[in-house]
Design a protein that fits this description.
alpha+beta, six-stranded antiparallel β-sheet, 35% helix
């Protein structure tokens, strides 16, 4: 039995549509700064100074930084005191040696009872934070040592 040409075309269109949905659904919104060839101390300093609202929580490996809760209003970070919804920035320095990668995620949370639950990720604020970190890293190039990160033993 021979199928008609329109039914074959319809099947191809359906397969193409499903494949494109799969590709788009698996695409990530990661914000990364790759190939950071600065010393780890310079990268950590740039990330710390770029975190919203100053001080940040730092894990014991000094590679993961979490900001205080904030609101983002017109390219300014504002403290989120008793807001129902707020943002938290998480910045990780990846890699055990140069060049490093810096992964940036901004999580939108919403109050549910006494706790906050993750609602979504905000790609726009993460991009803004990425630009701030890149600017700080480029400024630190001017202040770099001749012998940077040199350890004899």
């Amino acid at each position: 039995m021979v199928r008609s040409l329109p039914s074959k075309i319809n099947n191809l269109i359906i397969i193409f549509y499903c494949a494109s949905l799969l590709v788009v659904g698996c695409a990530s919104n990661d914000v990364r700064i790759d190939n950071v060839a600065r010393p780890i101390a310079s990268v950590q300093k740039a990330v710390l100074k770029s975190m919203p609202l100053g001080q940040a929580k730092i894990d014991k490996t000094k590679r993961k930084f979490t900001s205080r809760p904030f609101l983002f209003k017109g390219e300014k970070f504002v403290p989120a005191s008793n807001s129902r919804q707020r943002f938290v920035a998480i910045v990780e320095i990846l890699g055990d040696r140069r060049p490093y990668s810096v992964f940036i995620e901004v999580v939108k949370t919403r109050r549910k009872g006494k706790n906050f639950i993750k609602v979504s990720s905000d790609h726009t604020i993460a991009q803004f934070l990425s630009k701030v970190i890149q600017d700080r890293l480029s400024k630190s190039l001017k202040n770099g040592n001749v012998i940077d990160d040199f350890r004899v033993f």
